[in-house]
Amino acid sequence: MPMRNIGKSFILLFLIIAYGVIGYRIIEGMDFFDAFYMTVITISTVGFQEVKPLSGPGKILTITIISGGITVAAYTIGTLVRSLVEGEIKKMFGRRKVEKKISEMSGHYIICGYGRIGRLVCGELREYGMEFVVIENGQQAIEMMETDRVPYLPQDATADETLMKAGIMKARGIVTAVGSDADNVFITLTARGLRSDIFILARASDEKNEMKLNRAGATRVVSPYLIGGKRMAQVLIRPTVVDFIDVAVSDGHLGLQMEECRVKQDSNLAGKNLVESGLRKDYGVIIVLIKKHNGEMIFNPLPGEVIEGDDILVVLGKKEDMKRMGDMI
Asked: Which member of 77, 107, 295, 297 has the lowest number of beta carbons within 10 Å of its beta carbon?
C-alpha cells in the first residue's frame, strides 16, 4: 500500500508540472524551457527570480501551482515517513513476538548456523512438526530465515547469553552447523559447560577435526562431505540397498517409514517377548533392531526376545501403523 501511494504522488507531481508548463505557455506565451523552469522553481518554492513579470492570470496560475506542489510534497513525505515508521514498528513487534515464542519453547532443538546444512536440518525438523530456533547473525542468512519464516536470534552462537536466550536449559538438543570447525568446537564447549546432559550434534567440515569436537563434548559428530562421498560410492555399488534405505527413512512413495520408539517403564510391552507383544500381528510393523537400555544392539531379534522398559525399538512399517503403535507404546 505505501508503494502504491508513493506511485500516486509521482503521478500527481507529473500532472502538476504538465499543468504548469501548458499554463505558462498559453497564458504568458513562454517557450517550453522557460515554462518548465518557471514551473519547477514555483513548485520547489526556492524564490528565484521570474523569467518575466507575470500578468494577473499568470499570478493566479502560479498560486495554484504552489498550492498543488505543496500538497503533493506533503503527501509524498507523509507517505514515506509512515511507511518507514510502520515498517520499523512491525519489525520491532515482530521480533518481540518471536523472542517471546522462543522463551516459551521446551523440548526444542537449537540450530547454530543457517547455511546449507542448517537450512536442511530445519526443513526436516519442520516436516516432522518439531520445534526449533536458529542462531545466526549473517545478513544473507537472516534474509533467508525471514523468507522461510524461521524463528531465529540474530546473535553470536558462541556466547553464553545467546544460548541461554535460545532456551538451552529446556532444549532437547543443539546442532552446531556453522561453516567454521573452530566455531563449532567453541559452541560445543560453551553448550557443554552450560548443560552437561544436553545432546550435541556437531558438524565437521574437515575429518581431522572430528576428534577435537568429541573432546569438546559433542555427543555425535557428522562430516557431510564424508557421508556424501560414502553415499555416492554406495549408489554405485549397492543401488537397490540405497533406494530401499531412502524409501524407509524418507517416507517415500511406498508409504513406508522407519522410526525409533522408546518403551516406557510402565508400557504394556515391558516384560513381553516379541510374539506376546503382538507388534507384528496387530500393527504390521517389522522390528529391525532393539537397542537395550545398557547400549547393546540386537539386530533382527528373534520372536522370543524380551522387551524391557527404556529399550529403543527400530521399526519399519506404514506411517498410519506407526502412529497407532506409537500411541500404544
From this structure: 295
Same topology for domains 2-100 and 106-227, yes or no?
A: no
Interatomic CA distance for residues 235 and 253, integer angstroms: 19
C-alpha cell at 212: 577435537
Q: How far apart (Å, rounded) are the C-alpha atoms in residues 92 and 100?
A: 12
| Alpha-carbon separation of residue 231 from 100, 109, 123, 234 (angstroms) | 41, 26, 21, 5
pLDDT digits (tens, 9 = 90+) for 6-55: 677 778 888 888 988 898 889 988 888 888 888 888 887 776 777 778 88
Helix (H, G, I), strand (E, B) or coil at 308: coil
Cα separation values, 309 from 124, 160, 265, 280, 294, Å: 29, 36, 4, 19, 11
Q: Which residues contact 22 (CB under 8 A, 6 or more apart)?
A: 35
Q: Virtual CA dihedral for 70, 71, 72, 78, nearest 10 degrees?
A: 100
For the chain, the domains span 2-100, 106-227, 254-328
**Comparing C-alpha atoms, which of 29, 12, 31, 20 is closest to residue 60?**
20
pLDDT tens for residues 158-198?
Answer: 999 999 999 999 999 999 999 899 999 999 999 999 999 99
Q: Considering only the top CATH level, what class is 106-227? A: alpha beta
CA distances from 257 to 68, 122, 253 (A): 69, 20, 10
Are the C-beta atoms of 263 and 269 separated by less than 8 Å? yes
* Sheet of 297-299, strand order: 256-262, 312-318, 286-291, 297-299
Among residues 171, 105, 112, the alpha carbon closest in space to that of 136 is found at 112
Q: Does the domain spanning 254-328 belong to CATH 3.30.70.1450?
A: yes
Fold of 2-100: Helix Hairpins (1.10.287)
